[in-house]
């Protein structure tokens, strides 16, 4: 599969992608009595790396992603990218949500064209580039379908195409395959890894699925139960080219088991905390 | 350009084919619906005519349908029915559009500004359940006894359902598409036009669909209270002259006008919301 639309960034130096420095966040705390969701997060996400944020539900991993995205104001600490401090959302940090968040009144093609036009690209060129990305995510033939006519997997392909089309430096993914069935999820994981292999964007991928994190990521940050802290940062030493066969390899299983034990402790304390 | 998609597209049914199937079956359904509805109306007409022909009801209380239709035909030939229909429609639609032009922006602004919400929310809560027609004497004093006060009366009654629906629709918009647009490069003010309004459009249109019949009712009632031409005025005049055929002719005209106007709005809704799952039932 050759893909002209995605630039080859593999030669780029692996400098700093995102620097998260002393970030804390609490919800509903106008008077300081709120719930502490994130507690003093310090994390360097390298440029061009596929980084997974892994943790039990409610640990604040999505909150951290929204802070990187600039969707919610940073209360304490700083987040910086190559473009400077994060203060607002921007197309260099584009996001894919669990519930797709496509524009339901636009067709697949129009959804992708929207983002391209926001980058100042003319209508004709935007459409031809949108078609390339539709081919990339294998939605050819569905250009003129509305999101409500598509299955969940197809909607998420369209959402990924829309986000990739604006060529963000940083790709934020908030449990993007969480709403899909197991088979579709597996296929989408392989495709995402393959797309990332070619584009080499900095990816921050939020998930609570250990196998998904190990299969996709180069590094995994394991977060504690609320208040969210970074407990461990683990390197995934698996081959760059990852197909289905890797799921059977002993080093994959061993690493998954090790990470699962770390996450399990957090999940148990999270469920105790809730009762 | 080569792509992995080329090999796989054959297994998928193209969206155009899906849409095609849906439209043809939807057509058949719509035709069936229209048939049943026409049959119901036809049945009521036959019942009306039969009851009067058999002298079960005094013709002054319920004149035969055939007489009513004959009067309607005479009015069509003389052109008076068109004057009445046009006047009533003009008043109803003018009031409706004035109300929409004020209520939609206000509803949107209320969802975005706490100060406006605090100011207007209690006014709307008090005004919505109030019988708007009670304000007619005030409007007559302030304006005139002709079109102005009627149109303002209509706009006043249409305003509340539209502003309420717009406010509810624009405040309940999901944050995910809004965030998506922002992360694709949309500015804050662009999001209002490009994301919030399209997402809220089903609810706004519902508000308009509630307001339009309210506007039609208000038009006919003000015409009846204030006299002059228009369907309501002509009916009241007919009533004063004990012309029961004339009164029932007015009823038939209102039914016809209401049907056409409501169906037009439904049609416009379908065209505007082709993307919505409701359009593919």
TrEMBL record, chain A:
CDD domains per the record?
Answer: ABC_NrtD_SsuB_transporters (cd03293)
| PANTHER family reported for this sequence | ALIPHATIC SULFONATES IMPORT ATP-BINDING PROTEIN SSUB (PTHR42788:SF13), TAURINE IMPORT ATP-BINDING PROTEIN-RELATED (PTHR42788)
State the similarity comment: Belongs to the ABC transporter superfamily.
Q: Which InterPro entries match?
A: AAA+_ATPase, ABC_transporter-like_ATP-bd, ABC_transporter-like_CS, ABC_transporter_ATP-bind, P-loop_NTPase
Single annotated GO MF: ATP hydrolysis activity
Matching SUPFAM superfamilies:
P-loop containing nucleoside triphosphate hydrolases
Q: Which UniProt keywords apply?
A: ATP-binding, Nucleotide-binding, Transport
Q: What is this protein called?
A: ABC transporter ATP-binding protein
Q: What domain of life does the UniProt record list for this protein's source?
A: Bacteria
**ABC transporter domain residues:** 18-250
Give the organism the record lists. Answer: Microvirga aerophila
Pfam families for this protein: ABC_tran
TrEMBL record, chain B:
Q: Which GO terms describe its biological process?
A: transmembrane transport
Location(s) in or outside the cell: Cell membrane
Q: Name one Pfam family in it.
A: BPD_transp_1
Keyword check for DNA-binding:
no
Report the superkingdom from the record: Bacteria
Q: Which residues form the ABC transmembrane type-1 domain?
A: 85-269
Keywords for this entry? Cell membrane, Membrane, Transmembrane, Transmembrane helix, Transport
UniProt membrane topology term: Multi-pass membrane protein
Q: Which CDD domains match?
A: TM_PBP2 (cd06261)
Q: Which residues cross the membrane?
A: 29-51, 89-111, 123-145, 151-170, 191-221, 241-262
InterPro entries under this entry? Answer: MetI-like (IPR000515), MetI-like_sf (IPR035906)
Position of the signal peptide: none
Per the record, its GO cellular-component terms are: plasma membrane
**Main location as per UniProt:** membrane
Record carries keyword Transport: yes
Q: Which family does it belong to?
A: Belongs to the binding-protein-dependent transport system permease family.
User: What protein name applies here?
Assistant: Taurine ABC transporter permease
Q: Which organism is it from?
A: Microvirga aerophila
